């Protein structure tokens, strides 16, 4: 999973499909435990989410809320979006269409 540092306070993580997805989420959670950063999670290469993946996303969200940092998810296709809708977690995350729009969203919220 490539992690791009866009600024001193913003990273973009390009997530991979499972089984790599679970490792990606753990690595991001560990990074955020050490550093307070705004995060864009790019799902454009992800085709499937399981309950473990969702739990990892919720953990990252909790870390971001506690650190008073932003988290934006982008690149979700209709299959992934339906998982968010069915589980009800669509209401707790911030979404954007793509990485560029996500970065602009973070910039505007500062």
Short description:
With 110 residues, this protein is of the alpha/beta class.
Order of helices and strands: EEHEHEHEH
Q: Number of folding domains? A: 1
- The proportion of strand residues reads 15-25%
Note the main sheet.
5 strands, mixed
CATH class: Alpha Beta
The CATH superfamily appears as: STAS domain
CATH architecture annotation:
2-Layer Sandwich
Number of strands: 5
The helix content is 40-55%
End-to-end Cα distance: 27 Å
CATH-derived topology:
Transcription Regulator spoIIAA
Averaged pLDDT: 93
Tell me the structural class. alpha/beta
- Please state how the strands of the largest beta sheet are arranged side by side: 1-2-3-4-5
Radius of gyration from CA coordinates? 13 Å
What is the overall shape? Answer: globular
Number of helices: 4
Poorly predicted regions: none
Explain what the structure shows.
The structure is a single chain. This protein is of the alpha/beta class and 110 residues long. The protein has helices spanning 20-34, 51-66, 78-87, 99-109, and strands spanning 3-5, 10-14, 38-42, 71-74, 94-96. The protein has a 5-stranded mixed β-sheet, sandwiched between helices. Helix 3 links the parallel strand 4 and strand 5. Helix 1 (20-34) packs parallel to helix 2 (51-66). The longest helix has 16 residues, at 51-66.
